[in-house]
Amino acid sequence: MSKKGGKKNTNTNNTSTATGPKDLTVKKGPVEGVCTPVKVTEGSIYQLLREVLGPAFMSFRGDGLNSGLSMPCWMYEPISILQRSAGMFEYAELLEKAAMCKDSLNRMAFVAAFIVSIYCSTPNRFKINFNPILGETFEFVDTRWQDPVKYFSEQVSHHPPRTATHAYNSKWTFMQNYHPTTAFLGNNVNLDTHYRTYIQFHDNGDKFFIQHPVSKIHNIMMGSTWLEHYGELTVVNTKNEDSCVIEFKKSGFMQGPNYKVEGKVTSGKETIIKLSGTWNGGVSASWSADTKDFPEGTQMSLWEMDEEDYSEKAYRMSDFALSWNYLTPELKKLILPTDSRRRLDIRYLNKGEDKRATAWKQVAENKQREEEKELKQKAGDNENFWEPVWFKADKDHEDQDFWSFRGNFWQNREKRSKALAAGKEVELFYAPAIKDSAADFTCYRRLFSETIDNSLGSREKKEKEKELKKTDSKSDVSDAASSAGSSKKGKKGKK
After folding, report:
1. Which of 18, 410, 449, 479 is deepest in the core (most CB within 10 A)?
2. CB within 8 A of 376, min separation 6: which ones?
3. Cα gap 235→243, rounded to integer Å
4. At what angle do helices 104-117 and 93-100 cross, to 10 degrees?
5. What pLDDT is attached to residue 9?
6. CB-CB contact of 13 with 296 (8 Å)
7. CA–CA gap between residue 9 and residue 2 (Å, rounded)
8. Quick one: CA dihedral 426, 428, 431, 432, positive or negative?
9. What's the pLDDT score for residue 104?
């Protein structure tokens, strides 16, 4: 892997007849705008969980995401899970480079490097993200590239939580379903994302199916917190069964983090490309056989993490991540009423007002809980009571349940965008069953502002009363001590 400051030419065989791309440079521009959050004062996670779970805390082995626990907002990053998922495209240039390759085996190598890259920002980001409300969405156009990436995700199920994602540009399409489960194991947390991911290239129909490793957070209460990803990352070309397997090395007992990854791209039983590196640093490749694009003996760095993107930023979020809450007056007229950027808990946490954020979060959770109960009663069905707006139930290549994008969203948004640019008034688009629902984030101020103000006012009043009681208590103790001292002196005098 090349060191920072300059990349060397590692093609060691210049006599090959390979006719693939000689220059894989992809130009990247700046993000459109950033919304820098204000950090809040953190409490003790140990004390918090003990308070939430009670005496059963140390023996709790439940699924944290499905347990119904409501956490205060200081524990969160000011983004939703839908927004965090957009972080997969931090290094979207790897898919651009894959599209430049003529050989599907070379494409597979770049796709594998792209999947490894989505884990690079995780080692120092242990805060959780907001669980999406049923029907919540996030739409984002990544304009850093000449061929912009259009990303869209929707929360298609609440219990169990399921997120459907679709992203594309003119060369490729990304499709993913995400069904996370967590298990608290005393001082550790296991996370299984249950990702089912597809990446398809438009020119020849290469379609890669990806399965991901699992994750574990160590020492959430005692000791230095650290995270690892371990197990196998597999990439399979559904056209011909060529495959890539990368092993994320598991840390040994008392060893600490192990970031190493190692794998290979194979066709049949033959190894074509060897891959190695770290999931928090970069991935290098060496070719063991000739391909259409690169000759045997070629060595190159497929991907390198840019540390400067994450250093000394709030929540250690890159500028790309900080752009997910960027909201101009024009964009506010365009995005859906269900968009994560409209959530008041996220907006207030972003301002550093965690108490007000927590109050709005609880309102949203209660509203969702009540609506879900009503919908289930009306439908007489505990599972199929909700129909997602932008994704439809489908089956994938293994006949597994998969939510597929309906495909009409971006065309509608483009029409509305053109109308706004022409100076026309455009109303927000409300899908059926969304207006005034828990996922309609435009209705909360109208419906609940008075409730929030009263709640916060009552809470602040109680906190002041507690402080006064503490002060009075200290005063009583002081007076008692003074009185006792005077009494002793009086007794001594009588003697």
Report:
1. 18
2. 382, 385
3. 6
4. 170
5. 37
6. yes
7. 9
8. negative
9. 97
Contact (Cβ atoms closer than 8 angstroms) between residue 220 and residue 45: yes
Q: Are 47 and 161 in contact (CB under 8 A)?
A: no
For 156-194, what is each residue's pLDDT tens digit?
A: 998 889 999 999 999 999 999 998 888 887 788 888 888
Q: Which tokens go with 353?
A: 């007002």
Which residue has tokens 């400067």? 308
**CA pair distance 276, 296, nearest whole angstrom:** 17
Q: How far apart are CA 213 and CA 301, in angstroms?
A: 22
Name the 3-class secondary structure at 473: helix
Backbone phi and psi for residue 279, each to the nearest 5 degrees, phi listed first = -75, -10
What is the C-alpha to C-alpha distance for residues 453 and 327, in angstroms, rounded to an integer? 25
SS3 8: coil
Which residues on neighbouring strands pair with residue 184, listed in sequence order? 189
Interatomic CA distance for residues 400 and 466, integer angstroms: 55
Q: CA nearest 177: which of 394, 350, 9?
A: 394
Q: Per this entry, what is the length of the chain?
A: 495
Q: Which two tokens stand for residue 339?
A: 């968009």
- Give φ, ψ of 81 to 5 degrees: -60, -35
User: Are the CB atoms for 64 and 183 separated by under 8 Å?
Assistant: yes
How far is residue 90's CA from residue 80's CA, in Å, rounded to a whole number? 17
Q: What is the arithmetic mean of pLDDT over 356-360?
A: 92
What gap in Å lies between CA 243 and CA 209, rounded to an integer? Answer: 9
Reduced to 3 states, what is the DSSP secondary structure of residue 22? coil
Which residue carries 């983090």 as its tokens? 257
Provide the percentage of residues in the chain whose pLDDT is more than 90: 60
pLDDT (0 to 100) of residue 469: 62
Amino acid identity, residue 260?
K
Amino acid at 291: T
CB 66 within 8 A of CB 159: yes
Whether the CA torsion 366, 371, 377, 381 is positive or negative: it is: negative
DSSP letter string, 194-233: --EEEEEETTT--EEEEE--EEEEE-SSSS--EEEEEEEE
Whether omega before 160 lies within 30 degrees of 0, making that bond cis, reads yes
Work out the pLDDT band at 128, boundaries 50, 70, 90: confident
264 vs 249: CA distance, rounded Å: 14
| Among candidate residues 420, 388, 419, 412, the one with its CA nearest the CA of residue 401 | 388
Give per-residue pLDDT as tens, 16-65: 445 556 678 899 999 989 898 988 877 665 555 554 555 444 444 454 44
Dig out the tokens for 32 from the structure.
Answer: 């459109």
How many other CB atoms sit within 10 Å of the CB of residue 471? 10
What's the CA gap between 303 and 282, in Å, rounded? 5
